[in-house]
Design goal:
- The protein is α/β, with parallel strands linked by helices and 503 residues long.
- It folds into 2 domains: 21-270 and 477-497, 3-Layer(aba) Sandwich (Aldehyde Dehydrogenase, Chain A, domain 1); 274-453, 3-Layer(aba) Sandwich (Aldehyde Dehydrogenase, Chain A, domain 2).
- It is built from 16 helices and 19 strands.
- The strands form 5 sheets. Strands 13-14-15-12-11-16-17 form a 7-stranded mixed β-sheet, sandwiched between helices. A 6-stranded mixed β-sheet has the order 8-7-6-9-10-18, with helices on both faces. Strands 1-2 form a two-stranded antiparallel sheet.
- β14, α13 and β15 (410-416) form a beta-alpha-beta unit.
- The model has no long low-confidence stretch (mean pLDDT 97).
- The chain binds 1,4-dihydronicotinamide adenine dinucleotide (NAI) and magnesium ion.
- Magnesium ion (MG) binds next to loops.
């Protein structure tokens, strides 16, 4: 238990603005809130109003060193706890996070602009589920006995790697953090997380909550910018494993820095996920499936967003019209309003980036955009980063909108005539994270599922990442898997061989 008086409320609170202010200016290191060693901080904004809601501690190499030293000191005793005991503590964290789910949902909606009902509340509950899932897996950290010779007992045991550095993005920060730290902790590692500069608050609150249960130093949290705070975390000599979710560009930098130290790295780097719709699909279900697949309620800010939709020609026109009609009916507005389906883009930089793609699409000869959902009219939201969903048709296959990850509410729809040709087109991408196909011909569906170049292929559904199912991409979408037992075993432990000659 902590002896320090906390600046934050001890009970769950529904006043997200007060909580944001209370979390201001802090890292969480060695079981306590601390300011940046430099005394510096940066502004955190509500993207729905433009208002400054908090300041975040601006971490640098000195803060990284303090956090890693604390994590390294805590790791020895943490690893000595029986694995089931570590799991039980992580399960307790799951329950505490669950008890704070509504609070966390409101806070994440405030700092990211994601709608409370359709996104933020869902994320908070999934986070509790992820911790609960991994909390039950302590006793699954098994090794093997290996036949070698009579009189020689040869076994493998799974040992933790040490201090894990985790770098997370802003789109689903609580969930993406949980996928990393829950298995890392249960496996006997301690962690230092570097939050995304756009969304440092809800993850910091989770860190504080979990530190009520975990021994001090097991889970440390830093806020700060990539080159100043993320890079020194990767480079720190006591960090023995790095796990990263974000852009391909930064993923490469992280992988190179990890290679210099010869440490393992897990990378989840986004995608350009194809959705293949056959004329024999269940039409209504598939139209709704396209809305979910494109993550329109998250403004398309998802690495698995179905940003390339290929529809068999006989139903192409009807499908595009039905999709546009449904998206058009979605309510864009205040993320904290229960009526809202679609909130805001995360930041001005991302807003401009997505608008650049839209302008390029609109200027393409022959291309047409169906622009859906009305912008909010509430004057309080006039500075909000609201961007209407765009459904493009008539783009060329070479268009940047079709090849690059947009990470915004923009999808491109194409007609197709031939299954082999559309498969080749779906696979013609630098990315390979996820794919979905929609058909009642399961023979064809399964055949294509085997041949799609993606880490996750779903037929007649397109769910987000789920506990117990390995998740992670091929090609430029990343390295390694998350969310499953195998992910914990393979990416957060090493196997030691022990041989006993008793002859
Ligand atoms: P980013 O890759 O720059 O940021 C992700 C994290 O990496 C943040 O915590 C950031 O501070 C950190 N970082 C940045 N530079 C670093 C460095 N040199 N060393 C260590 N850490 C560093 O992503 P950003 O700029 O937020 O978004 C750009 C694009 O990346 C998006 O438009 C989207 O296409 C993609 N992206 C993909 C995500 C996914 O879920 N796979 C999540 C976020 C972004
Ligand atoms: Mg960046």
């Amino acid at each position: 238990m902590l002896d320090q008086p906390m600046p934050t409320p001890s009970a769950p609170t529904l006043d997200q603005n007060a909580l944001a202010r209370a979390l201001s200016g802090h890292h969480f290191i060695g079981g306590r809130f601390v300011p940046a060693r430099s005394g510096r901080s940066f502004a955190v904004h509500n993207p729905a109003t433009g208002a400054e809601i908090a300041r975040a501690a601006e971490g640098d190499a000195a803060d990284v060193d303090a956090a890693v030293v604390n994590a390294a000191a805590a790791q020895k005793d943490w690893a000595k706890l029986p694995a089931r005991k570590r799991g039980a503590l992580v399960s307790q964290c799951a329950a505490l996070i669950g008890a704070h789910a509504e609070e966390l949902a409101r806070l994440i909606a405030l700092e990211t602009g994601k709608a409370l009902r359709t996104e933020s509340r869902v994320e908070a509950n999934v986070v509790a589920d992820i911790f609960s899932f991994f909390g039950g897996l302590g006793s699954e950290l098994k090794g093997e006995s290996v036949p070698f010779a009579p009189d020689v007992l040869s076994v493998t045991v799974r040992e933790p790697l040490g201090v894990v550095g985790a770098i997370i993005p802003w789109n689903v920060p609580m969930l993406l953090m949980a996928l990393k730290i829950a298995p890392a902790l249960v496996a006997g590692n301690t962690v230092v997380v570097k939050s995304a500069e756009e969304a440092p608050l809800a993850v910091l609150r989770i860190c504080e909550l979990m530190n009520r249960i975990l021994p001090p130093g097991c889970f440390n949290m830093l806020s700060g910018f990539g080159p100043e705070c993320g890079a020194p975390l990767v480079a720190h000599p006591k960090v023995r494993k790095v796990t990263f979710t974000g852009s391909v560009e930064v993923g490469r930098i992280v992988a190179v820095a990890a290679a210099e130290k010869l440490i393992p790295v897990t990378l989840e780097l986004g995608g350009k996920s194809p959705m293949l719709v056959f004329a024999d699909c269940d039409f209504e279900k598939t139209v709704m499936g396209a809305i979910t697949s494109m993550r329109f309620t998250r403004q398309g800010q998802s690495c698995t967003a179905a940003s390339r939709i290929y529809v068999e020609r006989p139903i192409f026109d009807r499908f595009v019209a039905a999709l546009a009609e449904k998206v058009n009916a979605m309510v864009m507005g205040d993320p904290l309003d229960e009526k809202t389906d679609i909130g805001t883009i995360i930041s001005e930089g991302q807003f401009e980036k997505v608008k650049g793609f839209v302008a390029e699409g609109a200027a393409t000869p022959g291309a047409k955009a169906l622009v859906c959902s009305a912008l909010p009219t509430d004057p309080a939201l006039k500075k909000g980063l609201f961007l209407q969903p765009h459904i493009f048709t008539g783009l060329t296959r070479e268009s940047r909108l079709v090849r690059e990850e947009i990470f915004g509410p923009v999808t491109c729809v194409f007609p197709f005539d031939d299954a082999e040709a559309v498969l080749a087109e779906a696979n013609d991408s630098e990315y390979g994270l996820a794919a979905s196909l929609w058909t009642n011909n399961l023979k064809r569906g399964l055949d294509l599922a085997h041949r799609l170049e993606a880490g996750l292929v779903q037929i007649n559904q397109n769910l987000v990442v789920q506990a117990n199912l390995s998740y992670g991409g091929v090609k430029s979408s990343g390295l390694g898997k998350e969310a499953s037992l195998e992910a914990m075993q393979e990416h957060f432990t090493h196997k030691k061989t022990i041989m006993v000659n008793y002859g």
